[in-house]
Design brief:
The protein has helices at about 5-15, 25-35, 40-50, 65-70, 90, 95-105, 120-125, 135-140, 155-165, 180-190, 205-210, 215-225, 240-245, 280-290, 295-315; strands spanning about 15-20, 40, 55-60, 75-80, 110-115, 125-130, 145-150, 165-170, 195-200, 215, 230-235, 250-255. With about 325 residues, it is α/β, with parallel strands linked by helices. The longest helix is centred in the C-terminal third of the chain and has 19 residues, at about 295-315. The structure holds 1,3-dihydroxyacetonephosphate and iron/sulfur cluster.
């Protein structure tokens, strides 16, 4: 029996569902889709886990995705493939410093990106994702609110330019998206003048400025599927190419350059933590039930409020 067949049997036997992000190994994405699970962006991963009727949710992604699933489904068992799979945004926004930052600006609404710990979400008024940040901040801005934003400064700056909101930004960054180089992208655009440039908003401002489409992972996949161009330059984690090739097999996809004076590879756009997810670890945790996500109840209850606000808002 192949490892995939063994995993499929165990998922069924244990009433378990696999929820995966677009950046993880393509074999995991295929399994999630073929077994009634989901492959998606971080917002839809959260919503799906909450609404499905499985007893156990296995999250193939990074730590904050497992925590969000557990916060929204406290009665379900949530497992992650590797407990060390984290995120530079989450790691660089520790609750002690973040709390002090919030305390220093009590007149601001605290809006945090999904890529944060349960504790940081518990301290926030709203959690947002890349697909929802502009609409939530725009809504708060229209109500006359000032924003305290954390942790991604590039996404924060992009949201600020799109909404005109008064935003105080935490200075975090995604180590993967920060590697994209505007000069090298400009050169690639000259080489492929008809290409459409797709950029995730965690990328630096100069790279975002060169984009035809700026959006969440789902928005970038939909752009490849729906737009009339046949060549796309893609500035996000290259794990996304699996789904892009699937939805648009005849289109040419090119990785946006990460090379630069200090880089040691031409395109290094792959998240080392997302890459920790694989089939072998999935089989192991299905057998052992290890890597269960556990969150303190009071933290979880507070964090749920900021996440639920977003789910309600995006369903309106
Ligand atoms: P999305 O919500 O766009 O999937 O982004 C999650 C992420 O971690 C991007 O680096
Ligand atoms: Fe975090 Fe960046 Fe990895 Fe996404 S790609 S999980 S933002 S480090």
């Amino acid at each position: 029996m192949s490892i995939q067949q063994e995993i499929k049997q165990l998922l069924k036997q244990k009433n378990t569902v696999l929820v995966a992000h677009y950046y993880v190994d393509s074999a995991l994405q295929t399994l999630a889709e073929n077994t009634g699970g989901l492959v998606s962006d971080s917002l839809e991963m959260a919503r799906f886990g909450k609404n499905c009727d499985a007893d156990t949710i296995i999250v193939a992604g990074v730590k904050f995705m497992g925590e969000t699933a557990k916060i929204l489904s406290p009665e379900k068992t949530v497992l992650v493939l590797d407990e060390n799979a984290t995120c530079s945004l989450d790691e660089n926004c520790q609750i002690e410093d973040f709390s002090k930052f919030c305390d220093a600006h009590p007149n601001r609404k605290v809006v945090v990106y999904a890529n944060t710990s349960a504790e940081v979400k518990a301290r926030a008024d709203w959690m947002v994702t890349s697909s929802s940040a502009i609409s939530v901040v725009g809504y708060l801005h229209n109500q006359g609110k000032k924003i305290l934003w954390a942790p991604d400064r590039h996404l924060g700056h992009y949201v600020q330019t799109q909404t005109g909101a008064d935003m105080l930004l935490w200075q975090g960054a995604c180590v993967v998206h920060e590697r994209f180089k505007a000069h090298a992208l400009e050169a690639l655009k000259i080489k492929y003048p008809k290409a459409c440039v797709l950029v995730h908003p965690e990328s630096p401002q100069a790279v975002v400025a060169l984009a035809d489409v700026v959006g969440s992972t789902t928005a970038l996949i939909n752009a490849v599927r729906d737009r009339k161009e046949t060549i796309f330059i893609v500035a996000t984690d290259n794990g996304i190419f699996h789904k892009m090739h699937k939805v648009a097999p005849n289109k040419k996809l090119i990785e946006a350059p990460t090379m630069g004076e200090s880089a040691d590879c031409e395109s290094c756009a792959h998240c080392e933590w997302m890459a920790m997810n694989n089939l072998e670890k999935l089989l192991k945790i299905l057998k052992t039930g290890e890597n269960e996500v556990k969150i303190d109840k009071s933290i979880s209850n507070k964090a749920r409020r900021s996440i639920q606000r977003l789910l309600d808002f995006t369903q309106q």
